[in-house]
Amino acid sequence: MSSTASGRNGTWRNWGGNISARPAREVTPASVEELAAEIRRAAEDGLPVKAVGSGHSFTSIAATDGVLIHPQLLTGIRNVDRDAMTVTVEAGTPLKRLNMALAREGLSLTNMGDIMEQTVSGATSTGTHGTGRDSASIAAQIRALELVTADGSVLTCSEKENPEVFAAARIGLGALGVVTAITFAVEPLFLLSAREEPMPFDRVLADFDELWAENEHFEFYWFPHTGNTNTKRNNRSAGPEKPVPQLQGWLEDEFLSNGVFQVAQWVGRAVPAMIPAIAQVSSKALSARTYTDIPYKVFTSPRRVRFVEMEYAVPREAVVETLRELKAMVDRSGLRVSFPVEVRTAPADDITLSTASGRASAYIAVHMVKGTPFQRYFTAAERILTAHEGRPHWGKVHTRDAEYLAQVYPRFGEFTELRDRLDPDRRFQNDYLRRVLGA
């Protein structure tokens, strides 16, 4: 799932296949010094610079016709500090490798998203998150980070050192510099008990506040064209460990969640009229199950069916109303939507451009299978989500610009002022940043 899906003609493509770019050159620095030298060299050549991780963003946030930096040689754990309970990791390390390495050390992140193919810097810079009543995004677990700025200097920031940079750079969109290392807060490895079960859509909405309040991590998937959802509750457990048996895991996570789902997507693409009937079957394919395991084995799951996604954070108290409007829109639109809608939550955090900055949030994500026209569905969904002051995920499809974003982010001006200071010549500029942050 590497981002270096570069063709022989030097074309870079993202994981979702909806973004491509032709950089003037691609570099893979082996050290922070080499990376800084590449940024200085780009400045001499008058070229813009972007770093790209595993290409899991559906926006052109990492695209450039200048210098594309691949961080895959900047990987691994630099330091584990058991007194401070932190771990410092190189920016190009995939989340999967971090999670496995931490587990071997008897440690874990507190919360994480449901995909772990991304690099730690790509995931945090775009605001990747899971679901949590009290625990926030991956970026909210950062305690310090190292950043190479536009003039090639290396900046260390934390709450004590360069605190104004730290407030913004944890979700920096690649606009403030290239992140080279991240220090995360970690905790001793713990167990999570997962309870997955189908639940009617209307009941989930009626009981949403309760389901949210009673569980450390609550999320659900609604299947459009049906009144069905699959819910998932993850809570800490004293044990014992009871992982999903291997064969059952393969059957449910690979065969049903990925294999049968992939076939359903193919049929839906070939015969869109079949989609509502397929949705009824898909939404009932997975039966209830409970299991207890270490965090990354509960939070994350393989995603083999490629898709394109839009996700917005709305104020948590607006989630039920927003979902009702979304369902009514799908029901009357004549649209054929074969991919479930994912709903998660996050507490307010203090990161300048975090989708949960200063407000408790609920995330509503709409998906379409790769290669199907998604514009009509996404446009209709976006109209509903923005009416509730929704904030788009920085790495997922949206059409918002700086003018809109300045209205929904109280600290927007703080971020752009910092960018003016750290990158006055716009070395890290691209079309996407020009749109979302203004020129």
Provide key terms for this protein:
439 residues; alpha+beta; eight-stranded antiparallel beta sheet; five-stranded antiparallel beta sheet; 14 helices; globular; disordered N terminus
What does this molecule look like?
The chain has helices at 32-44, 95-104, 120-125, 163-169, 201-206, 208-214, 246-270, 275-285, 295-299, 319-333, 375-387, 402-408, 412-422, 431-437, and strands at residues 12-13, 20-21, 25-27, 49-51, 67-69, 77-81, 86-90, 107-108, 142-148, 154-158, 178-185, 187-188, 191-200, 217-222, 228-237, 289-293, 307-315, 341-346, 361-369, 391-392. The strands form five sheets. It has an eight-stranded antiparallel sheet with strand order 16-13-15-14-18-19-17-20, with helices on both faces. It has a five-stranded antiparallel sheet with strand order 6-7-11-9-10. A three-stranded parallel sheet has the order 3-5-4, covered by helices on one side. The chain is built from 14 helices and 20 strands. β6 (77-81) and β7 (86-90) form a beta hairpin. The chain starts with 11 loop residues before the first strand and ends with a helix.
* Oligomeric form: single chain
Contiguous helical run count:
14
Total beta-strand segments: 20
The fraction of residues in strands falls at: 15-25%
- Percentage of residues in helical conformation: 25-40%
| Overall pLDDT | 93
- Alpha-carbon distance between the two ends: 33 Å
Strand order of the largest sheet: 16-13-15-14-18-19-17-20
Low-confidence stretches: 1-8
